[in-house]
């Protein structure tokens, strides 16, 4: 699914009305009707008080449409206009006027704190104050209204987006954002829904299609691509009957130091689980017996040094490499990386301490192999790029880094984002159970396993992140978030592959009346 910017959505809006020869208020009617249908299906006429707060732009216009349709269908509706400006949009006014046709109780005009209504915990609040058109900080009584609504226990449903958030810009005032329980967003999710500073205000959302021009949606390069099952399925490469282990490549995992040999085991095992034909683990000498015992399928090469890596001597040509997990940042390890980066042709995942080595020794950037995949968590990313002001600034700086160095960067987090030049891929799988030691090592192994099977680096990155999160979801459903361990995620990779093509359970049909 595509994530469009607010500018692109306005453009889509305009093209749609032109091509479909409809008015903007027809489009607003579609949008409002979708939300009404959503509510009607769930409420089935229940007389719970519904408080609709409408701004003075088109988000407010949507709120007026929803209110009209609810009133027409006999719901218990209370409408308010958050009258923060006299500059009401044309389509707001059209729908303001239409309210007359269905009720004698005109929406309550709010102009100060004195107008805040009483709301009970079991009521419903609909936030149609601002959507993608909010263009400055909320202040005065409007900010107080948001805080007043946040303090209420009533269920809060945001129309298009919670008031106070921008679709694709950083948050300005965390104290002036509606804490929606659920958001119904039109046509495409917004980037801010997926970033830590803003996504916390969008715990649940659904996308409602409003029939924007399919050609525009199809041909426009989006701000970002959302990767869910449907997208991930397309990446999968079917195995052929006469394939043999050579077909799936020989992955090399360079990992571990004294006390951190587990990182090498987790990554090597995950490379196997992702489908690599052969896996060799390169570790300091102290890791030899540990690896041979813990992972008999892997071949092991060792450094001359006992406790950390100093010189990576190979006796084969790897088809893919994952390097850096638990290797520490000793001077000799940095020299080994310089040599590896300069001499190796295989596609490479660069993780953890290998990223820290780059941050501390910028000369490594000069030899960074093109199309390498860097997998930093936020701490590692900031060490690499320097401090960033907010989530959006971080993305922009990562894009610039990716372009400058011709590499793919995976920003790990709740919604991991893969960055390649201006392209962004936002992952949808994963859960807080994965915030556990070693889960990043598993990811590096998975991506190396995909690379070794011949997946293109960008696809290996995006698909690997999806599979890794999906495996994490499978584990957490079995054992709780708390009990997820990295080795469980690795073990669940097989089920993550199976889940890719599993049919979603169909909703049970109501039994027919005899
Ligand atoms: N294609 C689509 O996606 C479709 C979108 N649709 C809907 O339209 C919504 C976007 O509508 P929109 O452009 O009218 O913007 P909206 O969010 O109502 O606010 C703008 C108004 O608020 C004002 N204003 C701004 N900031 C302010 C502030 N801090 N404090 C005070 N005032 C402030 C600003 O005034 P001004 O800056 O001119 O003073 C302007 O009047 C979108 O979210 C969706 O719900 C559907 O109907 C159909 C298809
Ligand atoms: N709250 C979360 N939701 C989803 N995924 C998460 C969450 N927290 C962590 N993860 C995932 O777990 C992995 C953690 O990686 P990392 O921090 O490098 O772990 P480690 O260094 O211990 O191996 C990343 O892939 C990240 O996306
Ligand atoms: K809203």
TrEMBL record:
Residues where AMP binds: 412-416, 440
GO function terms (MF aspect): ADP-dependent NAD(P)H-hydrate dehydratase activity; ATP binding; kinase activity; metal ion binding; NAD(P)HX epimerase activity
Reactions mediated catalytically: (6S)-NADHX + ADP = AMP + phosphate + NADH + H(+); (6R)-NADHX = (6S)-NADHX; (6S)-NADPHX + ADP = AMP + phosphate + NADPH + H(+); (6R)-NADPHX = (6S)-NADPHX
CC cofactor note: Binds 1 potassium ion per subunit.
Binding residues for K(+): 59, 127, 163
Keyword line: ATP-binding, Isomerase, Kinase, Lyase, Metal-binding, Multifunctional enzyme, NAD, NADP, Nucleotide-binding, Potassium, Transferase
Span of domain YjeF N-terminal: 9-218
Residues annotated for (6S)-NADPHX binding in this entry: 58-62, 131-137, 160, 263, 326, 377, 441
Record's keyword annotation contains Cell membrane: no
EC number: 4.2.1.136, 5.1.99.6
One Pfam family here: YjeF_N
Cofactor dependency: Mg(2+); K(+)
Gene Ontology biological-process entries: metabolite repair; nicotinamide nucleotide metabolic process
Residue ranges constituting the YjeF C-terminal domain according to the UniProt record: 228-500
Annotated signal sequence range: none
UniProt function note: Catalyzes the dehydration of the S-form of NAD(P)HX at the expense of ADP, which is converted to AMP. Together with NAD(P)HX epimerase, which catalyzes the epimerization of the S- and R-forms, the enzyme allows the repair of both epimers of NAD(P)HX, a damaged form of NAD(P)H that is a result of enzymatic or heat-dependent hydration. Bifunctional enzyme that catalyzes the epimerization of the S- and R-forms of NAD(P)HX and the dehydration of the S-form of NAD(P)HX at the expense of ADP, which is converted to AMP. This allows the repair of both epimers of NAD(P)HX, a damaged form of NAD(P)H that is a result of enzymatic or heat-dependent hydration.
Family to which this protein belongs: In the N-terminal section; belongs to the NnrE/AIBP family. Belongs to the NnrE/AIBP family.
Quaternary organization: Homotetramer.
Name this protein carries in UniProt: Bifunctional NAD(P)H-hydrate repair enzyme
